[in-house]
Design a protein that fits this description.
This protein is an alpha/beta fold. The chain folds into three domains: about 5-120, P-loop containing nucleotide triphosphate hydrolases (Rossmann fold, 3-Layer(aba) Sandwich), CATH 3.40.50; about 130-190, Helicase, Ruva Protein, domain 3 (Orthogonal Bundle), CATH 1.10.8.60; about 195-315, Zinc Finger, Delta Prime, domain 3 (Up-down Bundle). The protein has 15 helices and five strands. The chain has helices spanning about 15-35, 50-55, 75-85, 105-115, 130-140, 150-160, 160-175, 180-190, 195-205, 210-220, 225-245, 250-260, 260-270, 275-295, 300-315; strands at about 10-15, 35-40, 65-70, 95-100, 120. Strand 2 (about 35-40), helix 2 and strand 3 (about 65-70) form a beta-alpha-beta unit. The N and C termini lie far apart (about 65 Å).
């Protein structure tokens, strides 16, 4: 990588730390490849004047890349020093600034943008739709294919934490060949706590009382807490209601409107035809009661979930 590939100013903006780290690593790698010395400066513990000192020309010449982390948490002194440096740029010094969001440091942000800094957005990855898009991009970046069922299985198994999701993608890309589907994902991640909870919910919403109870007992024996299982039950029922009342349209269109992943829309569409509005209302009430009990309002959390599952499956059977 040549020096020309290194921007003199770069702003890495957004709260998603995995994306922030990747962006910074890319910029730092480009700087080092061009022969620059890289100096990291964290907002916490910043000493006034440190930026100017590090930006001073070296007796031995060469270039410097200053990486300022956490502008959104920076003291006024760091912001003032950054503004001073931006106002009188030093030759052979490039600056990378990260900002996690919020209004703090806005004047520095505006100045960076006005000066034409390269802006790299790192938006939060929160919804299942966001996580599904992230998985697809990870595989596309590696020129690998993952099926829609594979994406669903991976998000359900390890989607609670983006860093773990990124690691799971990397493992599957490195350890497998050919398209990755739900069976491949299950081989690697089927035993995860999150996956167990979704299996229970899938069976309950499908009206399979015996299977749901069997999966619940297996999950509990494996150390899964009842609280997240109830949360997944509630989430899947809410998805049925959202999709059922959304009308027609492609899965992709509805997913965007409802804040869901396309595979969630497809799954809800397949299931919602077996439910009535009254049945869904009864099921939601059962989950709300179970939620209260598993969070300390009842004596036996496991029994509370079992009772909710039986009510849910009966409500669906009453269609």
């Amino acid at each position: 990588m040549t020096a020309a590939a290194v921007p003199s100013l770069a702003l890495v903006s957004g709260p998603e730390e995995v994306l922030v780290e990747r962006a910074v690593a890319r910029l730092v790698g480009a700087a080092r490849a061009s022969g620059a010395d890289v100096i990291r400066i964290d907002a916490a513990g910043y000493e006034p004047g440190a930026l100017a000192m590090h930006a001073s020309p070296s007796l031995f010449g060469g270039t410097t890349c200053l990486v300022v982390r956490g502008l959104h948490e920076s003291p006024d002194e760091l912001q003032l020093d950054l503004l001073a440096l931006l106002g009188a740029p030093v030759e052979d010094v490039s600056i990378v600034v990260t900002h996690g969001g919020g209004m703090k440091g806005k004047k520095v942000l505006d100045t960076l943008k006005k000066l034409g800094a390269e802006v790299i957005e790192c938006p939060a990855i929160k919804s299942d739709r966001d996580k599904s898009d992230f998985v697809l991009k990870e595989f596309a970046r590696a020129r690998r294919r993952i099926t829609s069922d594979g994406v669903r299985a991976l998000v359900e198994a390890v989607g609670k934490d983006v860093r773990e999701l990124a690691s799971a993608c990397a493992q599957l890309i490195a350890d497998t060949e050919g398209p990755v589907d739900d069976a491949v994902v299950d081989t690697y991640h089927g035993g995860k706590v999150e996956a167990s909870g979704f299996r229970v919910a899938d069976a309950a919403v499908a009206g399979q009382a015996g299977e749901a109870l069997r999966l619940l007992r297996h999950a509990i024996a494996s150390g899964v807490d009842p609280v997240p299982i109830v949360a997944v039950l509630a989430s899947q029922l809410r998805q049925l209601i959202k999709v059922g009342s959304a009308g027609r349209g492609s899965s992709a269109q509805l997913a965007k409107t409802l804040g869901l992943a396309p595979w969630q829309v497809d799954r809800a569409r397949r299931a919602v035809g077996h439910w009535t509005a009254d049945g869904l209302a009864v099921a939601l009430q059962a989950v709300a009661a179970a939620d209260f009990e598993v969070k300390g309002g009842g004596r036996d959390p496991v029994y509370a979930v079992e009772r909710a599952i039986l009510t849910i499956t009966r409500a669906r059977a009453g269609h």
